[in-house]
Design goal:
alpha+beta, Rossmann fold, OB fold (Dihydrolipoamide Acetyltransferase, E2P), 2 domains, 6-stranded mixed β-sheet
Length: 372
């Protein structure tokens, strides 16, 4: 799910909390490149999600930020100071792991207090800090402090792990797939709660995940990695609507790629493309001449109609219809054999069923040319 509301707008720029400057990590005497000249700035109050498939280098990047691995090349700075060579406990970077790493033999209070005890704070200070932090994560101290982890739900354990990290007042919090084990509804709820708490504290956060829906819902900025390299960075809406290449487009959700053998001249930011037996208006920010190319459009932006119109001028045959959690998912074959997937909340254009003819187009401004 992609949100286009103000919660996903990047905060005003200020000196970065975290700077990665052309950081690389290799293994096997340089034969295996896990991270390749990766650069990133993260600012106060900003949530940046690093997304990518397994093996893309995102976990190695997080481990280098935390101090669990050292880069082969490049520099990592926290508030302008290099942390290369510094152990994890000296970097003032908090970690929330996928496993949560909650101590099962300790109470909630003891778990949250653990990092504070390691800092040798006085007991009275620790007690006040634990109480305030538990209240912050919506686990009232009076009700939850004495409970054991076995008495908590998955969402409550998430909050304990977050409280333990936040209690030490880190400059930066790293999240390594902390909600991977939760069901969809609880994951969505916890993402909203996590964002709310993070924004209240104005702490910088880096969230490492392969779950693009959760990342889109909670992030100010998304960074896409492939084969150790940064491929695209931008707001959740930007990278979803304007992917830089085919890999990003496919990784962030269902998408249609439509081949056009004839593309007209650019006028007012748009071109008219010949698709099968009709035409489609497409967005193109590139002034370069384009005679043919690949169009991409998300299924939710495909327009389907029972009648031909300027907005739906390509004929197609319905070959499949499915109902999927609140929307109708239809697959249509064009006259040249290409297929287009559409997601619609209104099934009226599909009323004649499989094998019937419909007219297809794209919502204004949502069909784009893929960069060559």
């Amino acid at each position: 799910m992609v949100s286009d509301t103000s919660i996903n707008k990047q905060p005003a720029q200020s000196p970065p909390v975290l700077q990665l400057n052309r950081v690389s990590r290799t293994f096997g005497n340089g034969r295996i490149v896990a991270v390749d000249e990766f650069s990133l700035d993260v600012h106060p109050g900003e949530i940046v999600s690093i997304l990518g498939p397994s093996g893309c280098g995102k976990t190695t990047t997080m481990r280098m930020i935390a101090g669990l691995d050292e880069p082969t090349d490049g520099d990592i700075r926290v508030y302008g100071q290099s942390v290369i060579g510094q152990p994890p406990h000296r970097r003032n970077v908090g970690l929330v792991f996928q496993s949560l790493a909650i101590f099962p033999h300790m109470t909630v209070h003891q778990n949250v207090a653990f990092g504070l005890r390691m800092k040798r704070m006085r007991k009275a200070q620790i007690d006040r800090k634990v109480e305030a932090t538990l209240d912050l994560v919506r686990l009232p101290h009076q009700e939850y402090a004495s409970r054991m982890p076995s008495q908590l739900s998955g969402g409550q354990l998430q909050r304990v792990a977050l409280a333990r990290t936040l209690a030490t007042e880190p400059s930066l919090v790293l999240f390594d797939e902390p909600m991977a084990a939760l069901d969809r509804r609880l994951r969505d709820y916890m993402a909203a709660e996590l964002r709310k708490i993070q924004k209240e504290l104005e702490v910088a956060a880096v969230y490492v995940t392969h779950d693009q829906e959760t990342a889109s819902a909670m992030s100010d900025r998304i960074v896409i990695m492939q084969s150790g390299r940064l491929i695209q960075s931008g707001s959740p809406v930007e990278v979803y609507e304007k992917p830089s290449n085919r890999f990003v487009a496919e990784f962030l959700g269902d998408i249609n790629f439509i081949e056009s053998a004839s593309i007209g001249d650019r006028s007012g930011g748009f071109r008219v493309a010949q698709v099968a037996d009709g035409t489609m208006s497409i967005v193109d920010e590139n002034d370069s001449p384009r005679k043919s190319g690949t169009i991409f459009v998300r299924p939710e932006h495909v327009a389907v109609s029972l009648r031909q119109s300027p907005a739906a001028g390509i004929s197609g045959e319905i070959v499949d219809i499915q109902f999927n959690s609140g929307f109708f998912r239809s697959r249509m074959k064009l006259s040249d054999g290409q297929e287009i997937l559409a997601n619609m909340t209104d099934n009226a254009p599909l009323k004649n069923g499989i094998g019937s003819r419909v007219w297809i187009g794209a919502a204004n401004g949502h069909a784009r040319l893929l960069e060559p």
